[in-house]
Specification:
- The chain is α+β, with helices and mostly antiparallel strands and 300 residues long.
- It has 3 domains: 21-98, 2-Layer Sandwich (TATA-Binding Protein); 131-241, Hypothetical protein, domain 2 (Endonuclease III, domain 1, Orthogonal Bundle), CATH 1.10.340; 253-299, no CATH class.
- It contains 15 helices and 6 strands.
- Strands 1-2-6-5-4-3 form a 6-stranded antiparallel β-sheet, with helices on one face.
- 41% of the residues are buried.
- The structure holds a DNA duplex (13 and 12 nucleotides).
DNA sequence: TACCAGGCTCCTT
DNA sequence: AAGGAGCATGGT
């Protein structure tokens, strides 16, 4: 009975998300003509992605793997433009356009602090990012400022990524495995340089990132933690942003503040904080909740 | 100038 | 198992 209820619930979320969304295959673009669940600044600035540049107000270039797109958002619509019609399916999935965020937001709204968080970050969507790229990006993110993380990743792509004409792809695991610690220090990775060398070699040698897909959140977390430079928090970020798992809860300094706001207690034990927050927000939507809470706390 | 950042590894108890 | 020092670097 519970399972049936859950399946119906999932189907509801997965139904065609953005009512009125149009396909425009003449211009290699997707038009989103209802912005109640889409705001490109929210999506990009909520800390899930580091590889994007602001071109103008409401206009951004977004990079993923060896692809890119331009998102141009005005008052009443947003347009996602890609270089080739072949990229349509990729970016449709990338921006998670099959998920109904209205259902998610209304379901979460009665949970602690969610009303204001959802109101502030109403246009957030969790991207479906590449597993390898997300792994490396969040190893770099550890104990680091977001502007500096962006810089390191940018130099990584420029020096090791394939030249795509007027931009660079994210480097492959083989390309990264061919470099050593000194190289990663030279692009400013600091003490994470060793982690990048060791982990990229492990992936290039056949560590199967796709196999983690079928594991539950906790098992997947443990598996990712076997990679050097990946601890519990980084693992949860990868599982949320690349695997789209919901039974995870990345706990960083901002979420610790949120935890105190909710419980009145300091977050001293990360594992307990993670579990408490998973219990509060539910293992079917905790990942979404975490992102609304993080964005709201960090910007307000 | 200090402090801090989407924390992790490794060494002690 | 649990706790804490040390860590590279640059933004604020």
């Amino acid at each position: 009975m519970l399972l049936l209820k859950y399946l119906i619930f999932c189907a509801k979320i997965r139904q065609k998300a953005l009512k009125g969304t149009m396909m425009n295959d003449k211009n290699n673009s997707i038009i989103i003509d209802d912005l109640k669940d889409f705001d490109i600044r929210h999506i990009l600035d909520c800390g899930q992605i580091f590889r994007y540049t602001k071109l103008d107000e409401g206009k951004y270039m977004v990079f993923s793997k060896d692809k890119r797109c331009v998102v141009d958002q005005s008052n009443d619509k947003a347009e996602i433009s890609f270089d080739s019609e072949k990229d349509r399916v990729y970016f449709w999935h990338y921006f998670d356009l099959d998920t109904n965020y209205s259902v998610i937001k209304s379901t979460l709204e009665d949970k602690p602090l969610m009303k204001e968080a959802v109101k502030y970050g109403h246009g957030i969507r969790i991207l479906n990012q590449d597993k390898w790229e997300t792994l490396i990006s969040f190893i770099i993110s550890a104990n680091n400022h977001i502007p500096r993380i962006k810089g390191i990743i940018d130099r990584l792509c420029t020096k090791l990524g394939k030249n795509m004409g007027d931009y660079y792809a994210f480097p492959t695991s083989e390309a990264m495995a061919s470099m050593d610690e000194d190289f990663y220090k030279s692009i400013g990775a600091g003490y994470r340089a060793k982690y990048l060398e060791v982990t990229s070699r492990k992936i290039a040698e056949g560590f199967d990132l796709d196999a983690i897909d079928k594991l539950d959140g906790l098992s997947a977390n443990k598996k990712l933690c076997s990679l050097m430079g990946v601890g519990s928090k980084v693992a949860d970020c990868i599982l949320l942003f690349a695997y789209h798992k919901q039974d995870v809860f990345p706990v960083d300094t901002w979420i610790k503040k949120v935890y105190k706001d909710i419980t009145g207690k300091d977050s001293l034990d990360i594992k307990k904080t993670r579990k408490d927050l998973l219990d509060i927000y539910g293992e079917d939507m905790a990942g979404f909740a975490q992102q609304y809470l993080f964005f709201n706390k960090r910007e307000n």
